Structure formats: structure tokens, C-alpha cells
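[agent] plan:
  1. take the single chain provided in the ticket
  2. run structure prediction with default settings
  3. attach C-alpha cells to the ticket
  4. add a short note for the reviewer (M.T.)
[agent] executing step 1
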Amino acid sequence: MHARPMHATGWWLRSCLATLCLLIAASISSFASAQSAQNPEQSPISAEFSTAFEQLNQAIAAGQHEKAIALARRLDDQKPTEIDLSLSLVQLARSLQASGETAGASEFYTRTCDALTRPASANLAAETVISMRLMAATWFVQTEERSIAAVSLERAFERADAFSELQRKIAVDLCLTLGADSLQSGLPEIASVVYPLAVKHASDQQRSLAMLGDAWAMAMLGKQPIEAANRMTDFVNAFPKHPDAPRALRAAVACLKQYSANTDKANTDKGNAEKGDFAAAPLDKSEQENRILTDLLTRWPDLIEAKEITANYVGRRADQIPMSVQNWIVSQAKTDQIDALDPPMIVLALQIAATHSDSTCWDRCKAKLGEIDQTGQWTSDLLDRLASKSDAEQFVIYLLTSSSEMGNTKDRFEPASAADSVSGPKRAICPMAREAACRWAGRNQNWSMLAMAASSTSPETNDPTRTVAMERLFAESLMQTGHKAAAHAWWVHLVDMRKVDDFATLLRCAETESSLGEVGVASRRVDAAKQAAGDDQLRGCLVSMLAAELAVRRLRFDEARGELEAVVRSSTVDASLRGRAQWMIGETFYLQERFTDAIEAYRSVAGMDPDGVWVAAALVQAGKCFEQLGRTRDAAVCYSTLMARHRDSQYAELASRRLAALSNATSSDSNKTLRR
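[agent] step 2 finished; step 3 output follows
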């Protein structure tokens, strides 16, 4: 909250002083003479006081300031009750002011105000008392003695029923000036004293400044935000065409939000649940907030203040946003104003559109966000905030199947909507928005969606909206969905064309090349991955596994076992990888038909990874080896153990078939023996 009511000072204050002097000038001599003519025998000190009093007035009239000051101090310090000194003191203050003696003027204006509280001033005319208090207040406003100025004005307004029209105007104007100056100086506690006085007694011409200043003072105090919001809206209701009306409504909303924050804090502090205004205040902020925002967005929908207010709801769920704000955002999104909305506002619009199934708003905003989200952060935030996963998937599909070359081609995975049919060609999608969509799909392991997106294009397609991260996720999704050949093309593209040289990409490229590519090329891919692994033992073991597979493919079994044994001996890799390496050692012996060595290798798998998936694979392979050696009983033990301990394994069905085959073979042999 920065805007504050202002009021002119300078010449206006001087004018006030001159006017007030004229108002009391006629009262001074007659009242002073009356006091001088009092019976000197009235009191033991009356004669002395009367003489000193006459001398004081004579010194003031003669401009003898030093003498007048000494006499005035001596008389006033005794705080007389039988003689009123206020008129003389104010004359002296005025004379010192005219001579430029600021400190002296302030002293005697203060003494004047004090003298007016004594019984002797009761005989003064109300108009005279008011004029003297206003004259003192004017001086204190001019000299920026704000606290005493506020007190002087408060005392003057105690007799507001006796105000003349001119006095009332001067008093209110003084309040407006002091209030504005106090707000500018960061003293809302003083402004909160004088502005209510101005509101109560303001003329029609003064009322708008008085009400606005009163509202700002309450808002800046920060102690009663609900009351401040109410005063802001009262001002707007009274002066709807005032140029500060939209700003006042904005401030009212800010007050409500302050109240909301304070109540949330108070409610979480169990030890102080009953303390403070906020904890005990009624929770009616939602109704007031809706009313204020509705008024604002209805009257000034195109003002920047309205947009700033709605921006305060960024990060909230749609059901936490007032309906008036929701309607405003949606209405903006459905017009040309959508081009003025920033990414956070578009995100809000998409959340609202998804909640209310507003397809027109949804289609316009998804295209707009894809067009303007240059970092991808807002796309990522939206996908995490959407309550429905299907809505998130629909948005991801749109981004993944959109590119700079698609024109008005419809999304491959979604049907055309009426809104799209009139929206023209698709807007170009920011690369980072598409990347954010890919990352979301990857985090949620929605590999089939990514694989379909990968299949809708190819590595050879020139698409500037496709980033390296997107292509890496495309390749991985094809690996995860079993499309290894298609994945191989993407990995090769990343390494050879994109010049990606991180270890993970090089390893995947070597993996697919070892399975599908030429042996010589695969060997170079493995060497590149090994170089990228550096001294990292885990990475080195992963490369060794690939090197072993390539060696097996080249029928270099001893070389393969050397790579695999290095993995088995490593203490830095997990049990699952070591178990797989040990199983592969058994496979190399099996391929060489060294069945006894293979059995020993397979048996070692359980010792490395007892609960791993490779134990079941080792049992079924060991059973096959025993069969090759004619040791069917041992083979049956392997199959039975597998079925008993690893019933849910993918190898259980194979073990069951092998065990049944062994049983049938045994039965056949027994029947032949009996026939013989």
C-alpha cells in the first residue's frame, strides 16, 4: 500500500493563522481589560498578579520579547486560577512567531493550550477558545510537532458544537493536512486520531479526502484489517467515480489478505489461541473478500490493479479462489485480453477451466501457455496442481504432439473440439514447455505416452521445439516399452548428431548397439562409455557388463568371464548386479557346454543375492545342465526348489514344464522295465 491522501500546506497554513488571528483580535483587549479591572483586594496575590499581568500585556504590545517572556514564564509557572493567561500567551506566541523565534513560539503556544484547561478560561467565549486551539494546532502542524498538534485538534473538537462555519472548515483542513503528513512520515497512529475527526465534521468538498485518509490510516496501523477494509469500501461506495477508488479497493483486498494471514498464524499458535484481535475476530473474510473483488472486477475489469489483485491467487487451488475472480479470469481468457495475461494467470485459468470443464477456456489457455512458457516452470507447476490426472495427461499429449511444423494438424491422440476448429493454426510451442511435459510423463513412468509421442516423429525430423532432454526421454520410453530397435535409432542420434556425451546416454547407446548393431561399432560404443565412466567403480561395472555381453556375442567367453568376474568381486555395486554378473558367468559355461562348471557358477548366485530375481533364473539353468549330464534327479530338485521358493517368478512355469517332462520320462522308463 503506497498511495496516501495528500493535502496542501505552506501558504494555506499561513492563511489559517491570519484568519484565526482576526477571529480572536477583538476578544483580546476587552477581555484583558476586564481582568485588569478586577478588585485588587480579592486575593492576597491578586494585586501582584494584576500588576505583573498589565506589565506582560504592555511588553507584548511594545514588542519587548525578552521582558514579556520572563513575565509570562513567571506568571504561567504558578498556574493561576483567578486570572486567565491564555489570551496573553497566545499573543506572545504569535509575536514570537512573526519574529522568526520558532522555539519561543512553540513554547508559548504549548503554554496557551495548557492555560485553556484551567478554571479561569471558563469565562472565555467558546469561539475564542476554539480559535486559540486552532491557532496552536496550525503552528504545530507547520513545525511538524505532530503529536501535540493532534492533541490540540482533539481538544478543539470537544467544543465542535460551537464551531463557526469557518472554524469547522479550518479544523477539518488541519486534520487532513496533519493526517496526510503523518502517513507520509510513517506515523499512522497520529493519522488515525485526526482523520476520524475530519470524517465526522467534513463538508461535502472535504469528505472524500477525509474518508480515504481515515481508511489508509487504519490500514497502515495493521491492527484491525477487517475494519480497514470496510472503511476502504465505504469510501468507494460514497465516491465510486473518485480516481483513487480502484486503488482503495485493491487496498481493501490487501487488508483482507493480511487478516487471513494473521488468523492462520493465530490459529496455529495453540498457546495463544485466545489472545489478540485476530484470534477472536469473526471469520467473515470470505464473504467480504468476494464482495470487494466482485465490485472491483465488475467496475474496472481492464485496470492493472485488478490484474495485480488476481495475481495474489497464484498457487491456490481453483476451489480456493473466489468465484468473482474465477469468472474474471475465464472471461479474459476467452477474449483478446488473453494476450495480456502472464504465465501464472494462464495457469490459474487452466486450473479453473479444468474444474468447471470449460473446454473453450481450456483449449485457448493450453495453447497460450505452451506459446509463452519459455522456462517450462509454469507448465511443470500446472501439471502438479491439476486435480485430475487425465487433465494433466491431456495437456501433456497436446504439448508432446505439437511442434513448429504441425500447423493446424489435430493432436494425434485427442479428438478435435469445437474450440479448436475456430482457433486457427496451432501456435508454436516453447521447447521448454514441451520438455516440462516430457519430464512429467517420465516422473510418472507414463512410458507408453512418451513412446507414442516418439513414434509420431523421428530422429531425422528437424523440429526446433524438441530438446535433448525430450529426445533422451523418447529413447528411454521406447526401451521401457520393448521397442529396442526404435530406441537404438534415438540413442545413436543423440550421440552422433546431438553430440551428447554424458555417461548414461553413452551407456544406453552402447547397450542397444551391442544387441542390434555391428560388432565393431558396438565395441567403439562400449569404449566410449568406459571412458565416460572414468574412475567411478559402479559405472565401470555397468560398462563391464556390456563388454561381457559383446564378448559373448563375439564368442570370446574367457574375455567375457574376465569382465564379469571383475563385477562379482566389486564391493561398490549392489547385490542384484553382482548376482546378474554371476548368472552370466554360468551362461558363458553353458554356451560352451561346460555343464559342470556352469552348475557351480549358477549355485553361487544364491549366495550373492538370496532374494534376487537371478536366483530363479540360475535354478532353471542349473536344472538344464543336470539334464544334459543325465542327472535327472538333481535336475528335478532344482525345478522343485524353484517352484517352492520362487512360485511368482517368470521362470516358475518353465520349471513346472521341465519337471513334468522329467516325471513322464521316468514313468515311461519304469513301464518298459515292467514289460521286459
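[agent] step 4 note for reviewer: The first helix runs from residue 11 to 36.
[agent] ticket updated
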